[in-house]
């Protein structure tokens, strides 16, 4: 299985590197938020209660890393649907490759791409803006982003194989991702001081909110924060469930 995983991983990475434009397009939206929205937060963070500790860039940058991993992983199924349409998935069925490896190789490639995009965002913020992040916290935040990409891409691949529709899949993902993103506090933290009670409690149900909190705690190097432990444990549980769903779906569809 390890050999087959490596083969699928190398194949998908080669396909991604042949058209690196898509990797750059994936970070265009976070960069626009950095340049056009970030300066507005500089004066807001210091004078508004309810923001996490740290400056504007320490609050915004880790949230944008989560956003990058979110969109990168969630729409991974679009590529799989294209392969399904042109017959690549059918050809994989005729090989002795491990069915679990077909998934693991793909999600690892998505994790590497999401990490590379996140690292580019951090480098831009370090070079252009007044970002203060500890090396250990920065490394941990990239690990969290990679695990999130694995989680979402696993679920995305499984959902794509269930739907088998290139038209329905993006529409469904957009309908699900928009409320999750708004409730996660990516742009403005959904805290008790800032949000009405019903919105705050609704946001706490959103698992992505806890991942964003954990990412911010890791980014500022606060390893003892409760948010970091809660978000990390929740993310690991979601990753295990998503990989289980994805593995079962790949085995069923490629039997």
From TrEMBL:
<feature type="transmembrane region" description="Helical">
    <location>
        <begin position="62"/>
        <end position="82"/>
    </location>
</feature>
<keyword id="KW-0046">Antibiotic resistance</keyword>
<dbReference type="InterPro" id="IPR013525">
    <property type="entry name" value="ABC2_TM"/>
</dbReference>
<keyword id="KW-1133">Transmembrane helix</keyword>
<comment type="similarity">
    <text>Belongs to the ABC-2 integral membrane protein family.</text>
</comment>
<dbReference type="InterPro" id="IPR051784">
    <property type="entry name" value="Nod_factor_ABC_transporter"/>
</dbReference>
<keyword id="KW-0812">Transmembrane</keyword>
<dbReference type="GO" id="GO:0140359">
    <property type="term" value="F:ABC-type transporter activity"/>
</dbReference>
<keyword id="KW-0472">Membrane</keyword>
<feature type="transmembrane region" description="Helical">
    <location>
        <begin position="135"/>
        <end position="159"/>
    </location>
</feature>
<dbReference type="InterPro" id="IPR047817">
    <property type="entry name" value="ABC2_TM_bact-type"/>
</dbReference>
<feature type="transmembrane region" description="Helical">
    <location>
        <begin position="228"/>
        <end position="246"/>
    </location>
</feature>
<keyword id="KW-1003">Cell membrane</keyword>
<protein>
    <recommendedName>
        <fullName>Transport permease protein</fullName>
    </recommendedName>
</protein>
<dbReference type="Pfam" id="PF01061">
    <property type="entry name" value="ABC2_membrane"/>
</dbReference>
<dbReference type="InterPro" id="IPR000412">
    <property type="entry name" value="ABC_2_transport"/>
</dbReference>
<feature type="transmembrane region" description="Helical">
    <location>
        <begin position="171"/>
        <end position="190"/>
    </location>
</feature>
<feature type="transmembrane region" description="Helical">
    <location>
        <begin position="21"/>
        <end position="42"/>
    </location>
</feature>
<feature type="transmembrane region" description="Helical">
    <location>
        <begin position="103"/>
        <end position="129"/>
    </location>
</feature>
<keyword id="KW-0813">Transport</keyword>
<dbReference type="GO" id="GO:0046677">
    <property type="term" value="P:response to antibiotic"/>
</dbReference>
<dbReference type="GO" id="GO:0043190">
    <property type="term" value="C:ATP-binding cassette (ABC) transporter complex"/>
</dbReference>
<feature type="domain" description="ABC transmembrane type-2">
    <location>
        <begin position="21"/>
        <end position="253"/>
    </location>
</feature>
């Amino acid at each position: 299985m390890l050999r087959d995983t490596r083969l699928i991983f190398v194949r998908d990475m080669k396909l991604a590197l042949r058209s690196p434009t898509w990797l750059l397009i994936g970070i265009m939206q976070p960069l626009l938020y950095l340049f056009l929205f970030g300066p507005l937060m500089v004066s807001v963070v210091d004078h508004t209660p309810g923001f996490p500790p740290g400056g504007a860039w320490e609050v915004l940058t880790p949230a944008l890393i989560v956003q990058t991993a979110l969109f990168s992983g969630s729409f991974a199924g679009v590529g799989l649907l294209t392969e399904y349409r042109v017959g690549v998935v059918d050809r994989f069925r005729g090989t002795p490759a491990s069915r679990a490896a077909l998934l693991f190789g793909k999600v690892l490639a998505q994790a590497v791409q999401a990490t590379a995009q996140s690292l580019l965002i951090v480098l831009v913020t370090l070079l252009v803006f007044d970002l203060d992040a500890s090396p250990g916290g920065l490394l941990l935040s990239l690990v969290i982003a990679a695990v999130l990409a694995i989680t979402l891409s696993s679920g995305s691949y499984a959902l794509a194989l269930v739907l088998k529709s290139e038209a329905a899949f993006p529409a469904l993902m957009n309908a699900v991702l928009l409320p999750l993103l708004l409730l996660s506090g990516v742009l403005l933290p959904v805290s008790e001081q800032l949000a009405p009670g019903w919105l705050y409690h609704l946001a706490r149900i959103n698992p992505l909110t806890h991942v964003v909190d954990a990412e911010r705690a890791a980014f500022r190097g606060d390893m003892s924060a409760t948010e970091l432990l809660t978000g990390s444990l929740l993310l690991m549980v979601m990753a295990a469930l998503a990989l289980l769903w994805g593995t079962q779906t790949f085995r069923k569809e490629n039997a």
